[in-house]
Amino acid sequence: MTRRADRRLRPERESHFDTRSKGVIFSAGGALPLLLIAVLEPTFLRPGTLPILVGIVVFTVVTVGFTVRVGTLTDRQFTVLGSGGMLGVAVCAFLIADPSGARAVTAMLAVVPALAASGSPRRVTLSLTGAAVILALALSINGAEGVVRFVAAGAAVTTVIVPALLIAAMRTSLESVTERLETLANTDPLTGLLNRRGMLPEVEALLARACLTRKSVVVSLVDVDHFKAVNDTRGHAAGDDVLTTVAEAIARQVPSDAVVARLGGEEFLVLRVAATVTGLEEHILEAVRSSCDVTVSIGVAQADVRPGSADAVVDVETTLDRLTYAADRALYTAKTSGRDRVAFALEDSVEWPLGGISSRRDRLEVLRRGAS
Q1: For this UniProt entry, which residues form the secretion signal (predicted)?
Q2: Which residues pair with 96 in a beta bridge?
């Protein structure tokens, strides 16, 4: 493998800053040239206002330092720093003696609402945009007379609102596309069930829930009997209809907190938390029989989930493969015993570390997901 190819395969280093934090750092630097200009050209500011500008620059330096130290700002931190930054911009614009320079600085009020639109909740974006509009209006009509006030006010509002609206629209569109792609990547396009990639996070939560509640994980591997004959004699379209019908029959029978996925081909997987194996699989057999003209065979494995050490390296895929292997052996027994039946594997146990959900809030969240 070449060095260039090796670099392409390496995972990208995750940035310490998000878009808002980077925007705060770079936009805050706009106050530093004002101080330099004011020192070199004393008439740039209104008389006696240099100490005020120095105070704004100090606040700017503190803002940049805090953002660099924190990295990704919380919504509250961004709101506080953004509000302070907009107020600083407004004061700077008022301090500048030249009206054209003041108008140029006023345009910087659009920066914080635009940054908010890129990654803040709607209430934060609306609050900061409203504050920026008020400040821009106050500055634009200051010193203007007659109809010029209306022109200045319209220009100020447009300067603030349009960038925020555009970025908010782009963000909404991007989130919609991302959600769609995530759905396509995590679900089986034919049946709408989860695929292997999509079920892994759900399996992690299910294992954690079983560990917290000291219950077992029951794994059921469902396989359509003689599915190849359906494709060969009736065509692949009929086979797709059979798979869709079987998937719907399984989904109707399982509890709401179960994980249901299509593994590929004619195999489906059901995982659930239960104290003991119940008669669910018999209900699935009956539901499939009454829904279409095929039958299924089911292999079931049950495993106690024991808490593992917090520093143990346990991979969800490895644990899932272990569970499905046991269910697959039971499925083989069901197939060789005549099909259209359920077979059970010997009870087993697996370990699952709870280090990632050590807090009470995380534990309650895991349990809540299971109850929803």
Answers
A1: none
A2: 45
H or E stretch at 305: strand 296-308
CA dist 281 → 68, 106, 270, 344 (Å): 56, 69, 10, 11
pLDDT tens for 173-230 read 999 999 999 989 999 999 999 999 999 999 999 999 998 888 899 999 999 999 999 9
How many alpha carbons lie under 13 Å from residue 349 in its C-beta half-sphere?
Answer: 9
- The answer to pTM > 0.85 is no
Which regions of the chain carry the CATH code 3.30.70.270?
196-371
**CATH class of residue range 196-371:** alpha beta
- Is residue 310 predicted with pLDDT exceeding 80? no
What is the distance between the alpha carbons of residues 85 and 80, in angstroms, rounded to a whole number?
9
Please tell me the distance from the alpha carbon of residue 327 to that of residue 335, in angstroms, as a whole number.
Answer: 12
| C-alpha pair distances (Å), 329 with each of 105, 265, 325 | 73, 18, 6
Are the CB atoms for 78 and 27 separated by under 8 Å?
A: no
As a whole number of angstroms, the distance between CA 51 and CA 158 comes to: 32
pLDDT in tens, 35-50: 888 888 888 889 999 9
What does the pLDDT look like over 56-84, one tens digit per residue? 999 999 999 999 999 999 999 999 999 99
Calpha distance 199→269 (Å, rounded): 10
